[in-house]
Structures are given as C-alpha cells and as structure tokens.
C-alpha cells in the first residue's frame, strides 16, 4: 500500500509546466544569493563534521572553552557540591556566566579581590581565580600566601584554588 | 547506545502526552478536520503540545514536592493512553490507518523536478540540524546562563531548586539570569536529564531540533491545506534556509543559538495564529482550543508570549461569538500560564521591565529620545536580507497587493498578530531599563525570528492568491 509508483517518480523529471516554475526558480535563486553570506557557515560546519565526529566529549569541551574547561574539572575534583566558591575572573568576559553554569550546584559568588579583604572570607569557603597573562593585573598568589589560614589546593601563575581553613587571622 | 534508547523514550513521552491531550480535545474522535492535514502534521502537533504539557507536569510535581523520576512522570500518560486505546482507538484503528496513511502514498504523486528539489532542500536542512546540533556541546550564551542552567538546577534538586537560586543566582545578580522567565524550555530539558539519569546537554539538544522540524511541518501542512503543494514546499524551503532559523535549529560554527527558547516561541506563536485562521475557516471548535493551548504554551515559553497571549485573547473576544467556548479557551490557557506566574508572585521575583524605581509615565518621557533609534534598528533588522532573506519585503508587498483579502477574515487576525506584537516589542525597547544599544544588539534578531514564520506564511497565502492555481 505504501509502495512508490515508478511512474510517479519519473513524473518528477517530466518537462510539463516547466515554464510555470521559472519565476519560483528565479526567486529561490535570488533568495539563496542574498542569504548566502550567512549560509556559508553551514557549509563550513558540514566540512567540519568528519573532524568533529572523531573528537571525544572532553576534546570538544576543550575546543570550545579552552584551558578553562580543565580548570572547571580541577574545581569539580577539589570542591564539594555543597561548597561556596568565591570566584575572581576578568569582569568583561563570559567566564563568569559559563563557570556559574558548569560549577552548579556549588554556589558561586563572583568577587573582585581589589574591592574586598580576602581575610574576611567565611571559614570552609573556597577562593578561586582564573586569569590569562593579558588580564592578570596583580599577584593574587602572593597576596593569598600572606594569609596563614588560606590553604592552597592547587595553583599556577594565573589560576588557583584555595580554601579558607578558619575564620579571619584577626580573630 | 543505552543513552540513545533512553533519549528516545524521553522524547516519546512528548508525543504520547500530546496525543492524549489532542484526543481529549477532539472528544476522543480520531478523525475530524485534523485528518485533512495528514499524519506528519498530527504527529508534530502532538509533539509541540507534549513539550508544553510535560514541562508543566514537572513544574507542578516540583511545586507539590513530588520527586522527579521516570516512573512518576511517564506512568500517568501510559495509563491515559491505554484508556484512550481501549475506549476508542482500537475500534476505529482501521479507519484511522486508511485516513492518516493516505498522504504518505500521495506525497510523490505528480511531483515535478522543481518540487523534488525543494523537498530535497528541506530534507537536507533537517538532516543538517540533527547531525550538527547533536554532535556539538552547548554553545549558546543564553542557554548557559539561564535555559540549561535552570534545567540543571531542577534535575539536581529532583524538583524545585532552593529559593536562592531564583532570587540571587547569577554572577551579576538579576541582570543576566532572568529568574522571571517561564520554564517550558528548561523543564523539557530536565525531563531528558531525568530519563538519562545524568546531565548531557548534547543529547538534550534534540528537543530544539524537533521544535524546528515541528515548526516546518506545521508550516508546510497548514499551507498545503490552503494552497497547492508547489507553493507550500517552496515557502517551507525558504524558511528552512533562513540563516537565523538555521542558527536556532541546528547552529553553525560562527553563531550557534541551539538551546535558546526563541524558535520554540516562534512555533507556538505561529501555531496559535494559524489555528485561529482554521477556526474561522471551518468553525471547528477544536482549532479554537488549539489556538488557546498554543497561546498558553507561548506564555509558558517566554515573557514575550504573555503579551501575544493577551493580544490573542483580545482578538478572540472581538472575533469569536461562541462565549462558552471562549470561556473554556481562556480557562485552558490560564491553567498553563497561571502556575508559574503565581509562583513568581509568591517568591517575589521581580519583573525586569515593570519593576522600575520610577513610574512608567516618567520613564516614557525620559526615554522619548531613544524612539528614533528603536524604530531605525528594528526596521533595519526586518530588512536585513542576509539574516531573514526576503521574508519581510515579501510580506509587506504581498499584503499591499492583496489588500482586499488581507483586511478580511480569516487572514486579517494573522496580520493583526504581527503588527500588534511588533508594537509591543517596540514599546518594551522604549521603556527598558537596560542599555538600549546593548539590548537591541543582543536581542532584535530573535524578536524578528518570533514573527518571521507567520509573516512568510501570510506572504505565501497572498502570493498564491495573486498568482497561484489550485486550492484556495
């Protein structure tokens, strides 16, 4: 019942009423010409597909997010899900929004270390920072090293994860 | 492999639940005017209803502290589906098969090479959406910051997230998180996570591809009801290659918006207007109920859908004389929209446009200077050929040339929907407390997308009226 009739398929190529189709064909061509600058990315995507299909999920995530993805994994490994994270990063970037999403259910509070005293962080909370050589303005590791109750979990020159072990050193 | 099976199981619930709703709306009769449209239309109509219904079900479960699990979400629909099957479908299944499967056989009857090419374009685009969207992780900015973020929060909490999540959740509190946005999109993604029992954004993106296919399917089959097949597939193929549509349906390496709710809202706005058209054409109350359901789903998708729903109610009050049916329509719509709106009031989540420190008239006077900018930016976006092709010039030109029909029922309400919603968007830009340049730069193409399918549909109808032959 659902079989396709051979004659019906051949009818696709029949020349009848071809002239009637000409205006539609011209209109479609103009349309494609106009939208082509933004259709081109679709063609690029099709060319990328064989490459994409060979990547693992982690590789894709790293391709999109760069080294930030590895930093999130470090945070996931070192900070429990019910932890509160005080996060410092360049303000004019999407790092805060992306990190807020990927680190949930950890409660992420974005802070600017220049406008707060890091010694006042609540005990048990975590302080993390993530910058690039271009966006790093101060030696955060050095500053954190001066706070005895702040324990370094892992750090590099531009990023780090610290934990506030007790209350403020002034206590 | 197991993930794919669970994903298909999750998606199947959208079809099952939508099918149940459709059967109840149809008073359990499997064959009515709906069968004229063909089975692909009905299947995707079931899907678009199901996405809204299941997300509402998850929200109500969360409100009443029922833990989210596969069984408690799936089971009620299986029971209802079995009852429907036993009551009606089993007896009439032969008649249904005959009626619904007929269009499949007829699809190639008399197809010309040009129609074949156009069908190929649509099929190619659909395959592209599926393959590209499903092979790439989440990239859309709005998807990270709130749509998928809320989905993750509901999944991890197995219900309602803690209050702080809605009240002070983001890196820049209240500014980007949009806590007042409705939850259809996030909770439909939550259902996928519940079924998979893990968070997998890449697989969850299937919902957005299916939304695009549903929109294309409803677009094509509603056109085919009115005009001949060549015109229907011609305009459907134009919609499928519109760049902004592609970005939201499948994404591209340059700009990927898969995971945003705008195409979903497009689907509901478009569906509501066309169902109102068919209600006027056939006077079948099923289409009036579908109209109200789609209005409700639009309001449950994004806040822009709320103004559209209000507009729909006003148009319905003027145009529909059957007051009892109107009452039931309003009731159905309210059942969908009200729970989240009431919960927002309960949590004191502020509306980011209405909750101003200064009164509206003061703001309107203060912002008068931005009106030329708003008008110019919107006009430029409507006529941005690179993003929207010739949708809007074609819409304007064809309604001017066909103005006698355009100002009469059943087409006039569809045109009113477009013009009034554009006015609403203009007004929101006029009063917004945000930086207007930033806001328009980041959102104006999406608000044009909301109305573009309907504009193209009207252009198709008017073009056929002017030049076409066949059905009308």
Protein architecture, described:
The complex is a heterodimer of chains A (171) and B (472). With 171 residues, chain A is α/β, with parallel strands linked by helices. Chain A has two domains: 6-52, no CATH class; 61-164. Chain A has helices at residues 6-11, 18-53, 57-65, 68-78, 95-103, 140-145; strands at 84-88, 107-110, 126-130, 150-155, 159-164. Chain B is mainly α and 472 residues long. Chain B has one domain (2-357). Chain B contains 22 helices and no strands. The interface between A and B is large, with 53 and 56 residues.
Quick summary:
Chain A has 171 residues and is of the alpha/beta class. Chain A has helices at 6-11, 18-53, 57-65, 68-78, 95-103, 140-145; strands spanning 84-88, 107-110, 126-130, 150-155, 159-164. The longest helix of chain A has 36 residues, at 18-53.
User: Which spans of chain A of ≥5 residues are poorly predicted at pLDDT below 50?
Assistant: 1-5, 8-13
Number of H- or I-type helical stretches of chain A: 6
Largest sheet: number of strands, sense, barrel closure of chain A? 5 strands, mixed
What is the helix content of chain B?
over 70%
Distance between the termini of chain B: 47 Å
Specify the structural class of chain A.
alpha/beta
- Global Rg of chain A: 28 Å
Distance between the termini of chain A: 85 Å
Structural class of chain B: mainly alpha
Strand content of chain B: under 5%
Largest sheet of chain B: none
Helical content of chain A (DSSP H or I, runs of 4+): 40-55%
Overall geometric form of chain B: globular
Estimate the global geometry of chain A from the Cα principal axes. elongated
Show unreliable segments of chain B. none
Tally of distinct domains of chain A: 2
Q: Oligomer, anyone?
A: heterodimer
Q: Secondary-structure element order of chain B, as H and E? A: HHHHHHHHHHHHHHHHHHHHHH
Question: How are the strands of the largest sheet of chain A arranged?
Answer: 2-1-3-5-4
Q: What is the number of helical segments of chain B per DSSP (H or I, 4+ residues)?
A: 22
């Amino acid at each position: 019942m659902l079989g396709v009739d051979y004659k019906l398929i051949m009818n696709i190529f029949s020349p009848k009423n071809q002239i009637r189709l000409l205006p539609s064909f011209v209109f479609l061509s103009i349309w494609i010409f106009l939208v082509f600058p933004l259709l081109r990315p679709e063609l690029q995507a099709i060319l990328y597909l064989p490459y994409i299909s060979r990547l693992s999920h982690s590789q894709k995530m790293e391709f999109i997010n760069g080294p930030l993805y590895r930093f999130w994994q470090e945070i996931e490994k070192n900070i429990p899900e019910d932890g509160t994270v005080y996060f410092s990063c360049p303000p004019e970037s999407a790092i805060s929004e992306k990190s807020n999403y990927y680190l949930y259910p950890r409660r992420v509070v974005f802070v600017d270390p220049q406008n707060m005293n890091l010694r006042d962080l609540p005990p048990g909370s975590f302080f993390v920072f993530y910058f690039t050589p271009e966006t790093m303005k101060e030696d955060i590791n050095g500053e954190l090293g001066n706070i005895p109750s702040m324990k370094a979990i892992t750090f590099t020159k531009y990023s780090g994860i610290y934990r506030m072990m007790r209350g403020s050193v002034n206590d | 492999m197991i993930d794919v099976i669970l994903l298909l199981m999750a998606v199947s619930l959208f079809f099952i639940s939508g099918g149940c709703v459709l059967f109840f709306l149809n008073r359990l009769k499997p064959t009515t005017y709906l069968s004229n449209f063909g089975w692909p239309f009905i299947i995707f109509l079931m899907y678009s209803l199901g996405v809204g219904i299941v997300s509402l079900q998850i929200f109500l479960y969360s409100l009443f502290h029922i833990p989210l699990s596969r069984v408690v979400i799936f089971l009620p629909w299986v029971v209802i589906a079995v009852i429907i099957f036993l009551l009606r479908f089993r007896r009439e299944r032969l008649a249904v098969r005959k009626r619904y499967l007929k269009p499949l056989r007829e699809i190639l009857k008399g197809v010309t090479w040009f129609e074949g090419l156009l069908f190929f374009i649509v099929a190619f685009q659909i395959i592209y959406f599926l393959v590209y969207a499903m092979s790439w992780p989440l990239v859309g900015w709005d998807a990270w910051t709130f749509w998928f973020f809320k989905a993750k929060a509901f999944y991890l909490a197995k219900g309602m997230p803690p209050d702080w999540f809605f009240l002070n959740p983001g890196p820049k509190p209240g500014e980007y998180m949009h806590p007042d946005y409705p939850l259809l999109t996030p909770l439909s993604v939550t259902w996928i996570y519940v079924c998979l029992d893990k968070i997998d954004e890449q697989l969850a993106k299937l919902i957005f591809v299916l939304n695009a296919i549903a929109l294309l399917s409803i677009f094509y089959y509603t056109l085919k009801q009115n005009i001949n097949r060549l015109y229907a597939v011609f305009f459907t193929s134009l919609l499928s290659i519109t760049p902004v549509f592609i970005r939201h349906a499948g994404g591209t390496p340059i700009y990927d918006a898969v995971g945003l709710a705008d195409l979903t809202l497009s689907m509901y706005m478009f569906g509501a207007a066309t169902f109102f058209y068919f209600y006027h054409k056939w006077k079948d109350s099923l289409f009036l109920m579908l109209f109200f359901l789609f209005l409700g789903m639009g309001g449950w998708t994004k806040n822009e859908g709320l103004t559209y729903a209000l507009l729909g109610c006003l148009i319905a009050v003027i145009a529909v004389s059957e007051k009892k049916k109107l009452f039931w329509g309003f009731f159905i719509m309210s059942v969908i929209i009200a729970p989240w709106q009431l919960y927002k009031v309960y949590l004191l989540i502020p509306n980011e446009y209405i909750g101003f420190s200064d009164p509206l008239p003061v703001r309107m006077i203060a912002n008068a200077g931005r009106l030329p900018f708003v008008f110019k930016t919107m006009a430029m976006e409507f006529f941005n050929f690179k993003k929207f092709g010739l949708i809007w010039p074609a819409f304007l030109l064809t309604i001017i040339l066909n103005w006698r029909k355009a100002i009469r029922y059943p087409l006039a309400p569809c045109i009113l929907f477009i013009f009034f919603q554009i006015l609403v968007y203009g007004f929101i830009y006029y009063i917004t407390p945000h930086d207007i340049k930033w806001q328009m730069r980041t959102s104006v193409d999406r608000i044009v997308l909301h109305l573009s399918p309907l504009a193209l549909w009207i252009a198709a109808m008017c073009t056929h009226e002017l030049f076409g032959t066949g059905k009308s």
